[in-house]
Specification:
Number of strands: 2
Order of helices and strands: HHEEHHHHHH
Mean pLDDT: 92
CATH architecture: Alpha-Beta Complex
Distance between the termini: 32 Å
Shape: globular
CATH topology: Sufe protein. Chain: A
Radius of gyration: 14 Å
Helix content: 40-55%
Strand content: 5-15%
Number of domains: 1
Number of helices: 8
Structural class: mainly alpha
Largest sheet: 2 strands, antiparallel
């Protein structure tokens, strides 16, 4: 089950009950490109997340941004994968123009998941935006 866009994920997500939504997020996380252990450092750790989340940007030769990410919690890793679906392999200017929160809004994660699972989402989004600003 490889999704090409956040809209494709939502098309499935909206049809599922709560348990299956959890499973879908976990599957999304499992499908993330592996992040090499040496990149999981204090410098790549996202602050303010209840679980450990690491995000590492890889600027491409064509100017696009590719992110490697991981988490030590399955649901959180799925949320990270969802955020990455919105921004992966886009140009920094595109990422800055994108309303990531609006892209995530239909998933209603705040009401679907516990608050400690969602508290780090703004920090992950902020980190992606700061990276895009730095490279724009």
């Amino acid at each position: 089950m490889a999704f090409q866009s956040i809209d494709e994920v939502y098309a499935d997500y909206e049809l599922l009950d709560a348990d299956d939504r959890y499973r879908l997020l976990i599957d999304l996380g499992r499908a993330l490109e592996p992040m090499p252990e040496p990149l999981k450092t204090d410098a790549t750790l996202v602050r303010g997340c209840s679980a450990a989340v690491w995000v590492y940007p890889l600027p491409r030769d064509d100017g696009r941004l590719h992110f490697l990410a991981d988490s030590n919690a399955a649901i959180t890793k799925g949320i990270v994968a969802l955020i990455l679906l919105a921004v992966q392999d886009r140009r920094p200017s595109e990422i800055l123009d994108l309303d990531i929160e609006a892209a995530l809004a239909p998933f209603d994660l705040r009401n679907q998941l516990s608050s400690n699972r969602t508290q780090g989402i703004p920090n992950m989004i902020a980190l992606v935006r700061q990276t895009a600003e730095r490279l724009a």
